Amino acid sequence: MLKVIGAGSFEHSFSLRQHCDYLIQCGTNQFLVDLTECTYLDSTFLGTLARPALKLRKTGGTLRVAGSSRRVLESIRTLGLDRLFECVESLVPYDASGLRPLEAGVPHKETTGELLLRAHQTLLECDPKNAPKFQDLVSYLEAEVAPTDRGDSR
């Protein structure tokens, strides 16, 4: 469904969130993310990707990531997301014809803090071992993001 080319970073997270939210609203319960051409994933991107994976898990769905390099797979494992994502080596036997690259685009300033906060809160939810890495950032963002910007759509 989605293809990450180059770095999967903050700049792609807004597009990722919108696309995943749309697919879930449409009833999609199987996601495939092609990482064969991905060189790097940052914590914001991974936290944004983990949120729909948690939603899918609750409804019996699956988020698969395919073709990860060692560096990318290590990023997934370090944050404990290998227990949440189904990591597969290749796109075979999946139909990759529907894959589309994620668009880069930094969201408006009023959504940037909310995006960062949600992504890192999700990483804390996924694995308690992430707390030393991200708790200070989450605390800072909670104080900076106005309560009206934090509608709970988790």
TrEMBL record:
Question: Record's Gene3D superfamilies?
Answer: STAS domain (3.30.750.24)
User: What InterPro entries is this protein classified in?
Assistant: STAS_dom, STAS_dom_sf
Domain (STAS) spans: 1-81
Instruction: Check the record and name the CDD domains matching this protein.
Output: STAS_anti-anti-sigma_factors
Report the domain of life of the source organism. Answer: Bacteria
Q: Name one GO molecular function term.
A: anti-sigma factor antagonist activity
Q: What is this protein called?
A: STAS domain-containing protein
* Annotated source species: Methylacidimicrobium cyclopophantes
